[in-house]
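Schema walk-through. Below, the input block comes first and the output block second. Nothing else is stored per chain. Lengths vary across the set, and this one has 165 residues.
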Amino acid sequence: MNEPVRLPDLSTEKDFDGESFAAIYTTTVTVSGGLASHGRATGRARSADGILDLDLRMPAELGGDGQGTNPEQLFAAGFAACYHGALSLVARQAALDPSAISIEATVAFGRDPADGGYLLRVDLVVEWPDVDPGVAAPLMEKADSLCPYAKMAGKGTPTNITLAS
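--- output ---
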């Protein structure tokens, strides 16, 4: 017999009164370069707990063999899952059933006209059958304000880059 799925104990109703960031969960993923010594071309991504362990490959559109996943796919999956969780939370708080919600995330990799470097663009499409757009819109806006991926995409995220000693 299957065990019931336990939802995370996260809520928008729990007040946080701290003055600084307080981590609730932390994970570490290490990417190595593989045969080409290039993480995007022949890399391997492995989480500290070993649950995530996959080959990274350049997509064919960027000259790779396309035989593994790439960072844009991982980002799209993470963003869609995170936004889905946020929208499901606010839907439940509004006494709506979130079971039919699906999120399609499209991540585009391209040149940044500001500096000639690279830039990502993200489009999220929410499928929520049988829910009035007037009801869905404010809930989607609230989910956008709660989802850490949306916050990161809109506001940036604090990042520290250091050389290991």
